[in-house]
Structure formats: C-alpha cells, structure tokens
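Course assignment 3, question 2. Fill in each field.
Student: A.L.
Task: Predict the tertiary structure for the chain below.
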Amino acid sequence: MARRNVSSIAEFALIRTIAHRFPGHASGLIKGIGDDAAVVSAKEPAWWHVTTDLLAEGVHFDLDTADPATVGYRAAMANLSDIAAMGAVPRYLLMTLAIPRRFKSASVFAIYDGLMEACRLHDVALIGGDTSASRAGLFLGITLIGDTAAGRALFRHGADIGDHIYVTGTLGDSLAGFRLLNERRSPRSNRRSPSLSAADRRTLIERHLRPSARVKEGRWLNQERLASAAIDLSDGLSGDLRHICEESGVGAEIDGGALPISAPCRAYAESRRLSPVDLAVAGGEDYELLFTASPRMHAAIERQARARGFQVTRIGTVRHRRFGIRMRNTDGITRPMPATSYEHFFA
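Answer field:
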C-alpha cells in the first residue's frame, strides 16, 4: 500500500486506516473519527477556543524543502500556537486534506504522523476532518479546539499605556532557517555562500522546520493573570505588534537592543552581512508569544519565568496611540518601525 498513488486508494479505506492509526483518547471525547460528526462532552463552566488555518503548497510550504511529515508537524504547531496565545488548553484537532494525484499513500500517512507527533506533545486528539482530491497542489485545513475556564482568556485588546512588552524565546531563527533552506536550492547561492558552522546551520533550519508552540507559557500567563494582552508571532514582530496596538488603541516603543536573538541567528546575520535586528523584526513563524503586562507584574513575571525555565524578555513599553509604533535602535535614535511582516495576498 505504501507505494500506491492516492488515486488508487478508496477514501473510506483511508479514513478507516487513519482512525485505526490515531485513535482518539482524550478527556471529554465521546465519539471521534468514523461518524457524521465528532461528539465531545462540554465541561462547564468553560470557554471554548476554536482556530483554523488553511495551508497551501507553494504559499505556506514547499515540498522541496520540507518533507510531508514536517508539513504535518508545522501545520499542527501553527494552530497550537494560536491556542497558546489565548492562554487555553488545546484539546481536539480536525484536519481536511486535498491531495494531488501524484502523492503516494506513504506521503499521506507521513503528514498525519507529523501532525500527531506535534499533537501528542500537548495531549491533543485527532477527532475528524475530511479528504478530497486536488487538481492543483496539496492543501491542508486545520481546526483546533481548546478551552479555558469561563471568563479567563488572553486577548489582543487588553494592553494599556505604560504596560511592559515582552516576548518568549528568541526571534529571527525561523527566518534565518528558511533562507538557509532556500540557499540549498540555488547553486549560485551555494557557490557564494559565506561560511556558517554546521551546528548553527542545523539549529536554524530545525527552528524553521520544527518550531515549538508556547502552550505552557500561555497557560501560565493566563492562569496567573500576568498578561494584559497577547498574540503569537506567526507573521513577524512588526506585524503582530501592530495587531495588539490596533486592537488595544495604543502605540508602542520597542528597544532594538533588547530583542532576544540567538547566537546562531547572529552568526547567520554576520555571515550574510545582514542586521540581526532586522531578522528579528521581520521574521515570522518563530511562534513565540508577544504579550503585555502591567509594570506591577514585572517582578512576578521574571521570578516565575525563571522558576519554570521559561525564557521571557522585556523588549519595550506601550505608549499613547499618537506615539505610533517606533523602535529605538542601538544608536539611540527612535524611528518608526517598518511594516515588514508577510502578507499572503501581496507576496
């Protein structure tokens, strides 16, 4: 079966195989794959959080640089990151696949393997979806459901003037990894490619292909009532910060010198004669959390993050809306922050 094209596999046989390989065992799940709809038992009182993504071959991923298992893994992580930004617990996932005829059955199952590898890290059950043929490329539609206690969630609209601005982890790694993968495809780039250690190269590519959703960090910020607003960094700091500012009706000042940038990312920037700060500001798909918090919470955030092993860095301050969105560079000059994030319809 592993060598057969998808066109030779009956849809219902595919669904039965998926249901057998990935049985849903999760709290509250009454019926998963195999009926007209999944059934879950609602926990009261609770708020349900639902997010969805459509991923298209050639737009969101390239099968020349990411194998099918990696595509599935990253698709799950992108949605897990959305749930993390709400401070919610991810519970159930559904995936819809539109599969081109050229695909082998082994590649289809590899997508599910990668998807469920990411889901198992957070005890998420696959409970349904749909399959279809595609006359174009590969398409994945992901829906992820999570929950919080009623009245407890993180939103984009809660930032207040004077709040501190923080990020988890490091920024720019995924963009550097993405560029390294694309350099591999260009013989001309490879001939002129400046030196970068093999370890740094592996680290950056891994950060792009196998990101980590900050689910634990999001739950911590929500449960401890530390954050006033939050968003995940999927489109880049410059764009996602704008979402918080627009929804909250505020401005922001970012300290470029405070941005957490990993040593491999700095090495990559130096080898390519790029600004590491530019990579950190423009880079999307790091899937870190960007959040704001009252200055009164600063000591608690630092203390609790350290105790939990979370990397959290203060990078700026929420300003009045008239201030705009500006960045203080390492030269001490404050300039408007350029909008450099990815736009799907204008790329």
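Instructor remarks: The two ends are 39 Å apart (CA to CA). The chain has two domains: 9-149, 164-341.
Grade: pending
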